[in-house]
Amino acid sequence: MGFRRLNIPFLLWWRLHRQLRRRSRDVRESGAFLLGIRSDAGIDTARLFLCYDDLDPTSLAKGYIDFHASGFSKLWAECRHRKMVVLADVHTHPGNDSSQSETDRTNPMIGERGHIAIIVPRFAQGWCFQLRRLSAYEYQQNYEWSDWNGAKRSDRVRFTWW
């Protein structure tokens, strides 16, 4: 699968970050899927997001993400309807640590090679455009992930105008 980059338009990220903050209410994790177009050139562009609790209303009830099959059914139906694919999932963590937990590592939201997971610290409180505070990982298979953090992050995840 070669080198891939995920472009996220500024306005889309701002809207997503706001929704994550609102839905987490400073006390629980929240999350969403980024949908968009996968390009042959390796530069994928997010076009919209679908929040976990819009797809599965009970997914945030326990304080952590507990996403069910019914939510995935709705997600795949939306992908077909919009002719898009899931490019990444984004979810929040409490505190300043945005690194991948053992639960995150062993329970990928999408278990396909190349899927990207982005973790936002502090339940998405604070300034949304501090990319260095985010963690990003690419799923490789068999519960193995490539770490996109540090210097690699800006090569792999970028905010764009469109």
Give an overview in words.
The protein is globular and about 40 Å long. It has a single domain, classed as Cytidine Deaminase, domain 2, CATH 3.40.140.10. 26% of the residues lie in helices and 30% in strands. It is built from five helices and eight strands. Strand 2 and strand 3 form a beta hairpin. It has 162 residues and is α/β, with parallel strands linked by helices. The protein has an eight-stranded mixed beta sheet with strand order 7-6-5-4-2-3-1-8. 33% of the residues are buried. It has helices spanning 10-24, 52-55, 69-82, 102-106, 153-156; strands at 5-9, 31-37, 43-51, 85-92, 116-120, 135-141, 144-147, 157-160.
Layout of strands and helices, then pairs:
Blueprint: E1 5-9, H1 10-24, E2 31-37, E3 43-51, H2 52-55, H3 69-82, E4 85-92, H4 102-106, E5 116-120, E6 135-141, E7 144-147, H5 153-156, E8 157-160
Parallel strand pairs: 1-3, 1-8, 4-5
Antiparallel strand pairs: 2-3, 2-4, 5-6, 6-7
Structure described in brief:
By secondary structure, the protein is an alpha/beta fold. Helices cover 26% and strands 30% of the residues. The protein is globular.
CATH superfamily: Cytidine Deaminase, domain 2
Ranges where pLDDT stays below 50 over 5 or more residues in a row are none
Specify the number of helices: 5
Number of strands: 8
Quickly give the CATH architecture: 3-Layer(aba) Sandwich
Distance between the ends: 25 Å
Shape: globular
